[in-house]
């Protein structure tokens, strides 16, 4: 009997990018996407991630997790299942690189958006308000701008970007990136 293909458990924030990599770049991965909005509730993120890890472990598959350091216990959780994680602090570092995030932040304190963030921010913020009564609008006073990472291959919903800018009161700037770094990190797991 042959070795089973690896199972990738991914934050839904990467959905568009991974679907592109599968379709256009030959990334051969069996991917389970978890809801991107889980980030706003650590208990829900932990329970959902553990559920996906248990299914993968029960199937006897190698598990590769496409999350950054998105939960305070993520290392311990993954160790229990022998799973390996993406070598990045968060999704935006995975795509643009930590040095680029630092460089852009040194120009002006920035809130970064990828296509996945653009497509999920309203749901994420609604769940945070529902679960904790948190008003996300207050957290943007420290920022000077929004930087949207554009790949040129993942469409950006301009209406959602405009709504995010209106919601935060911040101007939008664009930064062109490729998906090469993300693909390298994924294949390096």
Task: Tag the structure with descriptive keywords.
3-stranded parallel beta sheet; 2 domains; 189 residues; single chain; globular; 8 helices; 4-stranded parallel beta sheet; Rossmann fold; alpha/beta
Summarize the topology:
Blueprint: E1 7-11, H1 15-24, E2 30-34, H2 42-58, E3 63-66, H3 74-81, E4 84-85, H4 91-96, H5 98-107, E5 110-113, H6 115-132, E6 145-150, H7 158-168, E7 172-176, H8 180-187
Parallel strand pairs: 1-2, 1-3, 3-4, 5-6, 6-7
Question: Could you characterize what this model shows?
Answer:
The chain has a four-stranded parallel beta sheet, covered by helices on one side. It has a three-stranded parallel beta sheet with strand order 5-6-7, with helices on both faces. The model has no long low-confidence stretch (mean pLDDT 92). Helices cover 47% and strands 16% of the residues. It folds into two domains: 93 residues, Rossmann fold, CATH 3.40.50; 85 residues, no CATH class. It is globular and about 50 Å long. Helix 2 packs parallel to helix 3. With 189 residues, the protein is of the alpha/beta class.
Task: Count the E strands.
Answer: 7
Helicity level: 40-55%
Termini separation (Å)? 24 Å
Number of helices: 8
User: Roughly what fraction of the amino acids lie in strands?
Assistant: 15-25%
Low-pLDDT stretches = none
Mean pLDDT, as a whole number?
Answer: 92
- Helices and strands: which structural class? alpha/beta
H/E topology pattern: EHEHEHEHHEHEHEH
Largest sheet: 4 strands, parallel
Total domain units: 2
Shape: globular
CATH architecture annotation of the largest domain? 3-Layer(aba) Sandwich
CATH class of the largest domain: Alpha Beta
Based on CA atoms alone, the radius of gyration comes out at 17 Å
Strand order of the largest sheet: 2-1-3-4
CATH-defined fold name of the largest domain:
Rossmann fold
């Amino acid at each position: 009997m042959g070795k089973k293909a690896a199972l990738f458990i991914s934050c839904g924030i990467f959905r568009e990018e991974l679907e592109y990599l599968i379709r256009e770049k030959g990334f051969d991965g069996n991917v389970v996407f978890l809801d991107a909005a889980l980030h706003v509730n650590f208990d829900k993120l932990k329970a959902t991630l553990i559920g996906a890890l248990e299914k993968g472990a029960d199937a006897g598959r190698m598990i590769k997790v496409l999350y950054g350091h998105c939960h305070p216990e993520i290392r311990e959780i993954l160790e229990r299942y022998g799973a390996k994680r993406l070598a990045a602090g968060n999704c935006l570092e995975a795509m643009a690189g930590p040095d680029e995030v630092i460089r852009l932040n040194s120009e002006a304190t920035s809130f970064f958006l990828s296509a996945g963030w653009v497509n999920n921010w309203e749901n994420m913020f609604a769940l945070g308000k529902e679960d904790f009564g948190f008003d996300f609008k207050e957290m943007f006073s420290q920022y000077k701008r929004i930087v949207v990472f554009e790949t040129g291959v993942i469409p950006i919903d301009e209406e959602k970007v405009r709504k995010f800018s209106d919601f935060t009161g911040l101007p939008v700037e664009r930064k062109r990136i490729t998906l090469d770094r993300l693909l390298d990190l994924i294949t390096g797991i």
